[in-house]
Specification:
This protein is of the alpha+beta class. About 30% of the residues lie in helices and about 10% in strands. The protein has an 8-stranded mixed sheet, covered by helices on one side. The protein is globular, with a radius of gyration of 28 Å.
């Protein structure tokens, strides 16, 4: 990028990063903060040598938190600006002149949260050098929805596989947050789609995301239905979902005719010679989940209640990504989850993946663990990392995606996925399960198509979730520093005058609440700036203005989960870890138009294709830089390590330490040590023939919910889900009353998914039932032939099962 015109240059500024000070010049342009060191005004160490100047660039729009700490001139201590970036870079700047510090702070704030219009973002002013390869690649042309569906086998010019392309949303009037091109069942007319749309939130009807090329099984996606407390239904929606689940079937067989040619799973090959024991043990939870899903078959005779046996059985799933209690809470405001009495051709599973608010709070705790990275070289706070439960959330998302991938790729079944509005957790699950199923999506171009399809086209709200317009709350003035505290290498930001600072803060709060801002009140100039800010932000469209409660690291979690798969299967991905890291950076940089706005319609109306460049041109022009040297493109289902399908090893989930700018030992040292100890003990037990040295009656290779008796240190154990902590929180079916015989399984009894319904759910059920609005809200009191079988519960002795239903109501994420 061409050198920008610098509006302000501040000389002899001390920068702090990792506790290491560096003196240089701070230059501010309209879009970047550039730190050059050593300072041009400083005398060279060797007068005869050519001065070597380094530059570090920081994009304003990547700023996540900026704090000004002014100090009085009489203190003799520098004022400082501490900045945290969304790529987890932490840097501090010390200014000898307090006026300069304030000037720099206001300049940065004005060009982030006070722009007033999306058109003023960097993307509308960025142009790659004319002679560069990037300028010759049009990244906007890389994704074509019709071409991708044609690759999957859906096209008017190809044999009918049960799906057709609909243009019902070509002008975005059918559903403003859906793509213009939709693939729907061939037997369903556009007129039926219009009626079905009224039963789904924001008219986000069930539509095709992925068609398996071998067994014709599908992954479809939608938003939640308008069930409500009265258990509403829609015949058109039921027909549409039924058509989605039967589109690839041949007459007389619930499976597609070529299902026998489906690739074998990775798991089936684990019994081959040389298979390692850790791979064998990891399938225990997967086996329990599959057995639980298959426990109640989807095909029954409605009169006799007896199971109908076909040559091969499907276990079609409606996957609700939310915790069950949150789903039922949504019924109170007219939404909710499918009443399975009307979808007897499928079962419904709840995946217990938390909402955007829980995920935002989780990342905030991670940030708290590394927040002093500018002034301190110390490692992260391990206790806070564990309390964040970040790895638990990543593991749960991977587990849920693997369940879907196994159902489609191994069990030859269909899956319909939704959460609330179907653009956050739904996008995570669709994209990750397809990544596990299809090697094409593990290539560089394929991964780009996957993001375009399941994230950008289907309406993940990048503008709101990524806070491209920033927010006033993220720019603060810490007047406690007026007491004399300053930021120096090796010191925390708290200062030593704790009591005095507390009194000063309370005093300011008192005057603020009483309308008399005397102590610490802003000057007249600062008041004018505040008024200017209010005026500029008031002009921002409601659709793009940042709302703090809407910000959440949903896409970052997807990239983190992808990193876990890449780390565990390093030869199966064409792209490398740095590609994922740079992709996360450019989600926030606003340098390209790709991730601006919240859906395809908004990007189309803003004419981003004509006015901005696509980020894919940046990556494709630097292909060698982002290519994985270990990549093996050969697919051979008969060779271990080259199978079409890949699955995560949940007990090997680790911190993506590179994205947090930390070493593997700093972030994962205790996890790696615990894993190494467990492997050593398992190897010793296997070599000595001790499968159960403690007489517990359990196989030493299986995962247990109990703490390991062989742990070598009190370090926290890996935050991955064991066999008793499956993300699968419950299964619903309409056939419990038709099949009175009791079906039990010893393996299921060991799973937390067969435990009692959580106490919070029972309490919520009791409260709703007292409303006496309708019968059968929770399956009790329904008609005799419409019973429900729920397997609920999530075993959590440490409070992991806490659900905030109010948060779920506030967001349709």
């Amino acid at each position: 990028m061409a050198a920008p015109h610098h509006k302000h240059v501040f000389n002899n500024i001390q920068a702090l990063r990792g506790g290491k000070p560096e003196t240089g010049d701070l230059a501010l342009s309209d879009y970047h903060l550039v730190f050059r060191f050593p300072s041009e005004s400083s005398p060279p160490t060797d007068p005869g040598a050519k001065r070597q100047t380094k530059q570090v660039w920081f994009a304003f729009h990547v700023i996540s938190q900026c704090t000004l700490r002014p100090t009085p001139p009489s203190s003799g201590k520098p004022s400082s600006i501490r900045i945290r970036f969304r790529d987890f870079t932490f840097v501090g700047f010390n200014f000898a002149d307090d006026k300069q510090a304030r000037e720099a702070f206001e300049f940065i704030r004005a060009r982030t949260c006070r722009l007033g219009s999306v058109d003023k973002l960097l993307a509308f002013n960025y142009h790659p050098p004319a002679s560069s390869l990037e300028s010759k690649i049009n990244g906007w042309d890389l994704y074509d929805a019709r071409a991708e569906f044609r690759r999957q086998g859906v096209s008017d010019k190809l044999p009918d596989l049960g799906w057709r392309i609909s243009t019902i949303n070509k002008d975005y009037t059918f559903s403003s947050t859906y793509p213009a091109v939709l693939a729907v069942p061939s037997k369903i007319s556009d007129n039926t789609l219009k009626y079905a749309a009224s039963f789904r939130s924001r008219a986000r009807i069930p539509t095709l995301s992925y068609l398996h090329p071998i067994n014709n099984c599908t992954i479809t996606r939608s938003s939640q239905p308008f069930v409500g407390l009265r258990m509403n239904r829609s015949i058109q929606d039921e027909r549409l979902v039924g058509a989605c689940f039967s589109a690839g079937m041949t007459e007389g067989n619930p499976l597609a005719g070529n299902a026998d040619n489906s690739p074998s799973s990775s798991h089936e090959d684990l019994t081959a010679d040389g298979a390692d024991d850790s791979d064998l043990s990891r399938s225990e939870m997967e086996r329990i989940e599959d057995e639980l899903i298959a426990d109640s078959n989807a095909f029954y005779d409605e009169k006799t209640g007896k199971r109908l046996i076909y040559g091969a059985q499907q276990h079609n799933l409606i996957v609700d990504a939310r915790p069950a209690i949150n789903s039922y809470a949504m019924q109170a405001i007219g939404k909710g989850s499918e009443n399975m009495d009307y979808y007897k051709f499928a079962k419904k599973v709840f995946l217990n993946i938390d909402n955007i608010h829980v995920m935002r709070d989780s990342l905030d705790k991670v940030i708290a663990a590394i927040k002093d990275a500018d002034i301190s070289p110390l490692p992260p706070n391990q206790e806070l990392l564990v309390k964040s439960k970040w790895l638990k959330h990543i593991t749960g998302i991977l587990d849920g995606s693997a369940i879907i991938a196994r159902q489609v790729g191994i069990q030859h079944s269909h899956a319909l996925i939704h959460c609330s509005d179907g653009w956050d957790r739904t996008s995570q699950l669709c994209a990750l399960s397809e990544l596990m199923l299809d090697p094409y999506y593990r290539t560089l171009e394929g991964f780009i198509v996957l993001i375009e399809k399941d994230w950008l086209s289907f309406g993940h709200m990048f503008g709101l979730r990524s806070a491209h317009m920033s927010h006033e709350n993220w720019f603060t003035v810490d007047n406690d520093a007026m007491a004399g505290a300053t930021v120096r290498p090796g010191e925390s930001a708290g200062g030593g005058d704790t009591i005095e600072n507390a009194f000063a803060s309370a005093k300011r709060l008192w005057f603020k609440n009483t309308g008399n801002d005397r102590d610490g009140a802003p000057s007249s100039d600062e008041s004018a700036l505040v008024d200017e800010a209010k005026q500029s932000t008031s002009n921002i469209s409601e659709e793009v203005a940042t709302k703090v409660k809407d910000v959440s690291p949903v896409f970052q979690q997807f990239l983190d989960a992808t990193y876990q798969l890449l780390r565990q299967h390093p030869t199966r991905f064409e792209f490398n870890e740095r590609f994922l890291r740079r992709l996360l950076y450019h989600v926030y940089s606003c340098q390209y138009g790709t991730f601006l706005y919240n859906n395809e319609r908004q990007r189309h109306e803003a004419r981003l294709r004509e006015r901005t460049h696509s980020v894919w041109g940046y990556f494709l022009s630097r292909r060698q830089e982002f290519t994985n040297d270990q990549y093996d493109p050969i697919i051979d289902d008969h060779t271990k390590g080259r199978e079409r399908l890949i699955f995560p090893r949940l007990n090997e989930v680790r911190w993506w330490h590179q994205v947090f700018n930390r070493t593997d030992d700093e972030m994962n040292g205790y996890l790696n040590a615990a894993a190494a100890t467990a492997e050593s003990i398992a190897a010793y037990q296997n070599s000595s023939g001790l499968s159960d040295p403690y007489g517990t009656g359990k196989d030493s290779t299986s995962q247990s919910e109990e703490p390991s008796l062989c742990s070598a240190s009190p370090s926290p154990q890996p935050q991955s889900l064991t066999s008793s902590q499956s993300v699968l929180a419950g299964v619903e079916t309409a056939h419990a009353a038709l099949t009175p015989e009791e079906r039990t399984s010893a393996s299921l009894n060991r799973s937390a998914t067969t435990g009692a319904v959580p106490a919070k759910f029972e309490a919520f059920q009791d409260k709703i039932s007292t409303l006496s609005i309708t019968k059968g809200v929770f399956g009790g009191g329904g008609s005799a032939g419409t019973g429900r079988d729920r397997v609920g519960g999530h075993n959590s002795n440490n409070g992991d099962s806490h659900i905030d239903t109010g948060q779920e109501m506030r967001s349709m994420g």
